[in-house]
Fold this protein.
Amino acid sequence: MENKYLDIVKEAVEAIDFKGDIVEVKPFGGGHINDTFLVVTENAEKREKYILQRINHDIFKNVEKLMENYCNVCDYLKDVVESRGGNPLREAITVVKTKDGNSFVKDSKGNYWRGILFIENSITSEVIECKEDLYKTGKAFGGFQNMLSKYKAETLFESIPNFHNTKERFKSFLEAVEKDAAGRRSEVEEDIKFILDREEDTAVLVDLIESGELPLRVTHNDTKIGNILLDKDTKEGICIIDLDTVMPGLSLYDFGDAIRSGSTYAAEDEKDLDKVYVDLELFEAFTKGFIEGSAGVLTEKEIEMLPMGAKVIILEQGIRFLGDYLNGDVYYKTSYDKQNLYRTRTQLKLVADMEKKWSKLNEIVKMCSGV
Ligand code: GN1
Ligand code: MG
């Protein structure tokens, strides 16, 4: 088969037990970290589709332990789905093992790959179309918390230590400002000031974990709305994907990161900041879905802190994007100049807008929780 990607994926597709002959390989999805491909195979009876991912081992330092987490969580979710009468092949990720029985393969260039089944009749979307879809997304992310509420968090490996430790993120940011590796500091002084003015916020969640006021749970940690498969026809959430960062964490991280991407109609790198704001109807739709989907597992304190969780996680994302911009775009994939700066500014605009709408956001959370 002629295909420009075949060279890159050749060793991986030979090692992984994909059924049939490969007829197509093409890039898939919009992740900023891993490389994802759709692989189509064909045999005498039928065509099959698979997802093939190159796991970024600069960022995920221990792929073996990461894949142990990944498989354990997938197996656990399959059991829960089955016990609730669902379809584990559709509502949970299925890892396609290598021909010698491993969950991933390392090729001769040192790249790590995993294969998973493609779930038919599903879509993902990086931007919001309507509040009904966001309610369904909220239900699915809340449901994820619910399904994993009895999973022992301490048995999970931390695939990226301190991932949502906003205090540590702030420290690394200060280093990036100090170093100014890419010589971009003078261009972003106002953005830096916005962040420095909110240093106190960066401690709130970390302090609540330390004081034991919020329970440590198994969380996804990367709940942007593109990380959920929706049924093509009904738009119901089918399955949560991108499980590399499933680790012990706070429910607020998952709520917050979904609000970051889901409470606005704007894209993450929207350049017209007038289009970037927290839409209260979207916020309400997601919150309602999340609380319903989590079905009683959230404590009163967790619910009360939801707006703060969202604000901190959005601020944290702004800190991470601007840190990467200052470092010279070394972490997130970018497809054009200044993309990380545009990404930063949407996040900071959302934080500023949340501050303006603070009492309203808290009222909505109260209303959705029936308090
Ligand atoms: C990255 O892999 P992807 O694109 O789903 C990042 C998230 C950020 C997100 C911003 C491992 O997620 O933390 O929130 O970009 N993942 C990692 O879009 O850093
Ligand atoms: Mg990801």
User: Anything to note?
Assistant: DSSP finds 13 helices and eleven strands in the chain.
